[in-house]
Amino acid sequence: MLAFANPLGMYLRDFNTELLQFEDGDLPASWVRWSRGQKGSFQRLELGPGDDDAVFLDDISLHVGQEPEPLEGGYQLIKEMEVGPLIATAPTSPPSEGEFLVIPAGVPIDCRTTGVCEDVNTLKAEHAQATAPKPAPRRPPGA
Q1: Structural domain boundaries of the chain?
Q2: First to last CA, the chain
Q3: Staple partner for 36: which of 1, 43, 53, 80, CB 3.0–4.6 Å?
């Protein structure tokens, strides 16, 4: 059984603030502002000094790799974050009455009266072409 979080959305799962430093020390806690959600499933992160502070985002250093680098934009941060939908799992149990509906097979699809078969055949041909083995490159004479 598989269920998505309610409401379904993309959530910021984790972020290691220890990668960031300000003046060779930890980032002030007030510079990491989570919102829209709850711990472990926020949808928004604001990072950096407040508008009243006399410092800027690039005064923060990111410590990934051998040399620290100034924080210049969101891409540097997003590479270090866990982002994705929440999926809830639980032990499985047999479905109870009314949890699913079995629909008996109907009449076969008549390809002459619907466009479905043509669409499926087009997709099948595109897939076959995209996954077909490519010929080996030709060697120039004398190679």
Answers
A1: 2-89
A2: 59
A3: 43
